[in-house]
Fold this sequence. Notes:
Blueprint: E1 2-3, H1 7-14, H2 19-34, E2 37-43, H3 45-52, H4 64-77, E3 102-104, E4 110-112, H5 120-162, H6 176-190, H7 198-209, H8 240-243, H9 267-278, E5 284-288, E6 295-299, E7 308-312, H10 314-332, E8 342-352, H11 358-363, H12 369-385, H13 395-404, H14 406-409, H15 414-418
Helix pairs in contact: 4-5, 4-10, 9-12
Amino acid sequence: METIPTPQEFKDAIESxxxxxxxxxxxxxxxxxxxxxxxxxxxQIKPQLEKLLKLPAESLTKExxxxxxxxxxxMEYQIPSDLLSYDGPDKATSFVPTPASFISASSDAxxxxxxxxGTISFKIDTVRKYANxxxxxxxxxxxxxxxxxxEVATLGFMSDLSSAPxxxxxxxAESPKKDMRKKRKMKKKSAPSRNTSSLSAGxxxxxxxxxxxxxPKPTPKASPTPTLAPVAAxxxxxxxxGVIERAEASNAIVVPGDDDLYDFTAVPALLEAQYDxxxxxxxxxxxxxxxxxxxxxxxxxxxxSKPASSTLGNEELKSAKNSAFDLLDALTKSGAIAVDHAELxxxxxxxxxxxxxxxxxxxxxxxxPIEKVERSSLILASTIHGAPAASLVSAAQLSxxxxxxxxxxxxxxxxxxxx
Length: 419
């Protein structure tokens, strides 16, 4: 909440400015006064959903699962309402049960249509059939996308496997003991005997000079063949826009009659004039109410779960806002259908400021703060309700309040009645 200067403080601040600067300051203050209005619109979803789908009133009261299914299709997939609304006869006709009169309520069972065409049960089951058909098509598109992603991942895995280096073959190195035994045998064979001739000795000597074969060097172990873990295919968002064409929204906008219109933006200026006339202490300040950047949300994940609290930041608020506007766009067909069950709450705030603390106001200033706040409350109430302040005070307290606020409780003059 943010307060802005009082009417008298604003007049004193712009008194020395040029006419151009004063006009600019007045225009800027008018925008500030419009910002003091804070509106909250509450729309009943179930009656609007029944009107959108051409269903009778109160027909979705006990259809909780169907209502949640329809809202999911509108908010997550932006399915046009024309693909889900009832398009059969409005009145009940003669009905003979046939195999074609059974509508699939789920993928596992068939639910018979209760009643002839045109009845409430028939209309609800028809809408349920349309919703199940759309859900089946979305599931098929999702499975196809998952299958394509898995094939791409498998092909990538096989290509990586084929380009991997082949393993190098190597011989097992012999143990040192076995190698020493081979060397000893070779020395015994190469040693010269006493009865050998010189020629044979030369051959033996030459054979002795011949170096013994070196043991084979152990080759380094080949690195194992790299194995690639299969890539998990992420579930892609189905391209619903390519499968389902959006219905063309009508340009007709339903506007209420002139008698139902009320300009709430004129309330701040009217309060400004009342503050300037009746606020003798110059203590009432218009207040701007703004929504915070962090919201607290309480919700239930299911019907049987307990309420859980969560905090919504900027990204969560942006996502929730987009979902709300998507749902509003679907429920109204982009503004072509009027919202019958809605409430608009407009809040306007003002702050009564004291120059001192409560005790100092009573003791030092010798002022009764209760009487001052009563006067400010009467100024606001009489302006909002459009009634004289005297009619808003009980008869037992009227004489007391009139004694300290004669100007506010005096009967209106002819000029004020005309205004």
